[in-house]
């Protein structure tokens, strides 16, 4: 990058390595400085205007569409921000300059606010939070002392809270407790009086994490330990999971990843509890991936686990921009003619703005099969159109996009060309907070489609959906279809902000509580209710009776509800599911937390086997004959691609029937 300067020693032009030339113009007044930047690529100029006040603070930005955003200040603190579409958020600070309240933009009214996030602290000059309240009023309280007196005491020098109370002040409240030493968490327990999920953390003198331990059977029993190792620069180099599987990541002096080894099972007898530190004396021998880099840190080549090499070359043509060429390994062009070699080369061309303008994929020696995609952008650098063609000059697929003032993608139009009347058109609409509130499509038009700017009427809409939210950004209602075909689903939440009810408006009358925490009110609606364990895990799923057309959720016979309950171990793993007919499915897990066996109430089970990478290699079920078992075995190559999958067979079957897969070197 090169710069030139004006007489005031301000940057006048700035030229990037891709050839983009930015020209800076300055206008000084009593109100401050206006900086106009012309971004040029030789044929196009995109102008941005930045307005600073007399104190040098950024107060406004005007883009090439003449749309503006603004910021206001109090001293060096931003107190309001207005986006291009008119959404305005505000902030209030205490005397120490720490935010105590953030007013969120009203989703419908430009310049207004709706709801706020608030935080209280240990003191005006103490940044430790005490009460953090979200927009829905759900409070998280941080306790900085073992004392529970009021006001909340904050022990001097304590940087880790003693406990955190979630949904403080409600019946749903639960605690997470912490032990710490020298500012490092040594243990945490979720809901000590309920779920009691505990994890311990072991640190070395360099304040690096040596290991973590969790306890599926409770802290009175041996836990599962995960070890970590570091290189001489302090970067994480190896992770050893509770089953003894290690994954290594090796860096060069510049911090680039040069080698990845594993996951691979490694025997290290000393790496087991009660030891909290594992000595990784040597790297394992295992298929690995490796990278080679250029001096600027860009990748020059990549070698996969089978030794196949993909190379990358970057050139900077004299006309500006850059060209990136990625060459995959050469291979046969068809299974029936493996001696006729071909290769996949991807050539990506970027303009002076460093935006991708074209991408050609295929064998350069077979021009008729090359797939070329061209990209065009709007003045804000957003993708406007992409056109794909294979071989010939006419595009076979054109996709166009449009955006609203805040940059949300609002239109996607797909077809063989922009004037084709059979394009697929999808449209979206967002509120001032950027939440999706309405979407249409795809259309499958039979007459001229709506323009890519969003004007016009889209025909033959296959789906039309609307979404309604509360000020806490929680989904309250989803409507699909229109008129008699309309289908509505409502969502309501508990005092902790968790999903409590899903209400399906089966009679399409819209009768529902207007409160975010309101319950079912219409007997003709279908209901699903969720309850939670003290630590916030789903404890039960309760549904409406199946043999009634109307049911009062609150006053009806409660035993008619269909309840599925879930149970967990002390590591938070779901160990049992009891359905509405009191049939239990039990689940066991491997040392790494993978599902090992799922057993239905009648005794039928499915058992899984895994390789060191966590891929399923065997699925075992009881034999249909009533004696023994049958299994399906899946094999993988070193890259993780499936090479064979057998039909169900008894374990002793030699060479069972299987589907096999083979791959070219490029995958």
Radius of gyration: 31 Å
The number of distinct helices, counting runs of at least 4 residues, comes to 0
What structural class do the secondary elements suggest? mainly beta
- β content, as a range? over 45%
- The poorly predicted ranges are 446-460
Terminal residue distance:
38 Å
How would you describe what is shown here?
The chain has a domain at 583-667. Helices cover 0% and strands 49% of the residues. It has a 49-stranded antiparallel β-sheet, with no helix packed on it. A two-stranded antiparallel sheet has the order 27-28. A hairpin with an 8-residue loop joins strand 34 (409-415) and strand 35 (424-430). It starts with a strand and ends in a 7-residue tail after the last strand. Residues 446-460 have low confidence and may be disordered.
What is the compact description of this entry?
With 667 residues, the chain is an all-beta fold. It is 0% helix and 49% strand.
Q: How would the blueprint of this fold be written?
A:
Layout: E1 2-5, E2 11-15, E3 21-29, E4 32-40, E5 45-53, E6 58-62, E7 68-74, E8 77-82, E9 88-93, E10 99-105, E11 113-123, E12 126-133, E13 139-143, E14 163-166, E15 174-181, E16 184-190, E17 197-203, E18 209-214, E19 224-230, E20 236-240, E21 245-251, E22 257-265, E23 288-293, E24 299-303, E25 309-315, E26 322-327, E27 331-332, E28 341-342, E29 345-350, E30 356-362, E31 371-377, E32 383-390, E33 397-403, E34 409-415, E35 424-430, E36 436-440, E37 464-469, E38 475-480, E39 487-493, E40 499-505, E41 526-532, E42 538-543, E43 562-568, E44 574-578, E45 584-589, E46 595-599, E47 605-610, E48 616-622, E49 629-636, E50 642-646, E51 658-660
Antiparallel strand pairs: 1-2, 2-3, 3-4, 4-5, 5-6, 6-7, 7-8, 8-9, 9-10, 10-11, 11-12, 12-13, 13-14, 14-15, 15-16, 16-17, 17-18, 18-19, 19-20, 20-21, 21-22, 22-23, 23-24, 24-25, 25-26, 26-29, 27-28, 29-30, 30-31, 31-32, 32-33, 33-34, 34-35, 35-36, 36-37, 37-38, 38-39, 39-40, 40-41, 41-42, ...
